[in-house]
């Protein structure tokens, strides 16, 4: 698991559905998700030592959950780099 998402700083990620989400490291094993445009909490993504994740919430689609989990675990950057390298 990434160590507290880039040294405990909040980060912003965009899902493929064009939703911008602020990601805040929490005090446990997860990350709080917040939609600043709609001013509401979207839930949390919990990640274990093996980069397995689970979404704790009801507001995101499966695709949005996967986008955010990939951003948190770093696999999104790996896929983007792979695509650029083709």
TrEMBL record:
Q: Which domain of life is it from?
A: Bacteria
Protein name (Swiss-Prot/TrEMBL): Uncharacterized protein
| Taxon lineage | Bacteria, Pseudomonadati, Bacteroidota, Sphingobacteriia, Sphingobacteriales
